[in-house]
Specification:
Structural class: alpha/beta
Helix content: 40-55%
Distance between the termini: 72 Å
Strand content: 15-25%
Number of strands: 20
CATH topology of the largest domain: Rossmann fold
Number of helices: 21
CATH architecture of the largest domain: 3-Layer(aba) Sandwich
Length: 556
Amino acid sequence: MTPSESAKAYAKSVVAGKTPANEYIRLACQRFIDDLKRKGADWPYKYDAAKADRAVRFMEKMPHTKGKWAAQKRLLVLEPWQHFIECNLFGWVQKRNGHRRFRRSYEEIPRKNGKSLRLAARGLYLFCADGEAGAEIYSGATSEKQAYEVFRPAWQMVQKLAPLRARFGIEQAGNPKNPGPMFVMEDMSKFEPMIGKPGDGSSPHAALVDEYHEHDDDHMVDAMETGMGAREQPLLSIITTAGTNLSGPCYEMRADVIRILRGEVKDETIFGAIYGIDEGDRWDDPASLVKANPNYGVSVFSEFLLQQLEQAKRSASKQSAFRTKHLNDWVGAKLAWMNMLAWQRQKRAFEVSDFAGCPCWIGVDLASKLDVAAVVMLFEKAGSYYAIPRFYVPERAVEHNERYQLFVLDELIVATPGDMTDYAFIEEDLKELSAQGIDVRDIAFDPAQAAYLMTRLEQEGLPVVEMAQSVRNLSEPMKEVEALILARKLWHDGNAAMTWMMGNVVARVDAKEHIYPRKEKQESKIDGALALIMAMGRALQVQEPGQIQQGFVVMD
């Protein structure tokens, strides 16, 4: 069976339900089958089996570089699901000129499924056998170690194959321990690692971006794509596992690919294959492992995965890592509190003016005057809750934080002048909100942070409430926020800064099953989540008539 025949058989098996796969792989396979049937002048592509098979056969001549298969001097043998991916990338071409259809590939695959080795072989084909004069191939990642996860095996493959070096005139710098760039001397094509933030000036024929979920921004991908303008058939290959940052560029790209696969958006130049489990699948069911791991029993062994599963069942600290790396189940923090897929599902477009006459509770988390301050308005309407956040950060903090810079540009946070957050901005916003006729029931502050601001607002007649950020005050509203999200009764306006903060929250659980919001590291801000929990705490609180007018309400 040729690679193209294997790819078609795999797609048909998945669509027929004979091969376990999630929704996104079923959609990718159906797209392939449907495209093979498309004809006519309005369909500018065709499938060239000869080109697909040539690329795959090249890759399958590459040797293994570590483990028992390397010791046995065995060559790569791609599985049918890998034939499916590579044949899509190299088989689909434009009718008018034969150039590749797909310019970007997004592949989300759990660990130990052979993704780095296959990406190395793909990179070598693009480097020396794709017919591109002066090709530039970059293996990119956020760290040197990760960049070499793909580049080192590619370098070692070339070192092991003297006929390959002779056939294409390849020269290698460095050594197996510290591999350097590789060159095709006839036309000076090159293949080298790329770390961090590349500058302008490169002209990539292909870029291989590994573990994209670790990228905080799009700098590397943007630099590579903008540099591809002079190439006739460039390919940006992005391969990653799931991650924890649901406000980062990887999750955003994933969402775009899902929309393409579902037919909600049309883009014939992007290929996507997202392996994982479906919503509703039990993470602790061994059948989920088979569905999520296409190389189950081949490069990722059942004994290993089942052992990892048993450890995850016993240890909450290992559960999130297991779900992320072996099931491609995105979570927002390594010990995450919130189901971030459910949170993303609850995004809806609305604004303050939509809630005239509705009760509103406000949580305010001021934390430090040197960093983010958060105000979250929580409205109740027709039995559901709606959260609208506002964030403030001093200009000095913005200068040294790229994430804050992007949030400011997108008008998701307000930069206040100077080195410290100017609470006057928050005071004016709260007074303006009250002046708009919004039915503000309570404005909850932690008194340790905001005594002066609380006093000023109380003097203006606003219903200020002291609410210490203690386990006693936050546990029940924290549980309520989670329950309402899962029940689809709490909605938010999609503010990306708020989503980032919700994903950073770690739930500390004590012996009495009280929970408390924490963060794993200093830079993982959770101010918006705290403000939402405080607002929910007030929404749950039954108040005595006239209580607010008598002064501050105190919660221990």
